[in-house]
Amino acid sequence: MIGILGGTFDPIHFGHLRPALEIFEQLALDELRFIPSANPPHRWQPEASAEHRLAMVKLAVNDVEGFVVDDREYYRDGASYTVDTLASIREEIGSTEPLCMLIGMDAFEHFTKWHDWQGILKLTHLVISSRPGTNHVKIEDWMTDRVTDAIAELHKQPIGKLFFADVSQLDLSATFLRKQLLEGKSSLFATPVEVSEYIERNKLYVPST
Length: 209
Ligand code: ATP
Fold this sequence. Notes:
The protein is α/β, with parallel strands linked by helices and about 210 residues long. It has a single domain (about 1-170), classed as 3-Layer(aba) Sandwich (Rossmann fold). It is built from 9 helices and 6 strands; from the N terminus they run βαβαβαβααβααβαα. A 6-stranded parallel sheet has the order 3-2-1-4-5-6.
């Protein structure tokens, strides 16, 4: 079973990485693909370039067995719609392999506003992790038949289930980190040291002089 975690990763931090590892182990994933979004359609444009964000994700996950960086959105023109990314992954892995898209509860709250969200559920399961500030979700009608607490069910069918994952709660966000850096503070211990050093070396998230 393959997992994917899409994000702006502006920059990547331990709030992405630790829950991702816990889900990777909990669900016994064969592979977890990190997919930096080049042109996120649903939010303001990221501060660091797609190139820098991709480089930081690579530095963060390179030595972790089973973690892979997938740069397909980087090489696609136009807005990076999740449904298109999933369709292109499906073309590669076929229709029978179970696929789990990891998503934080804050993002899941707006899921039905995403472009072709019903199409997304025809391509993947969703694995939803709570996050400080958003640890409860109201179960709506469309969700009832899809929610499962059995990991075996995720392995049994390729798409369409919702699984709420219990993960360590790390109150970190890229917004917080960017603010710290803008104030001349360090990103150390909020992200891998290689990422911290990359940020410093490339003078990211500091006012341009
Ligand atoms: P920003 O602060 O710039 O909005 P972010 O820190 O929320 O960024 P994203 O790259 O937008 O990071 O998030 C990618 C995915 O990771 C989303 O599904 C988000 O919910 C999840 N995520 C980010 N931070 C955490 C965290 N601390 N705990 C759990 N999930 C997280």
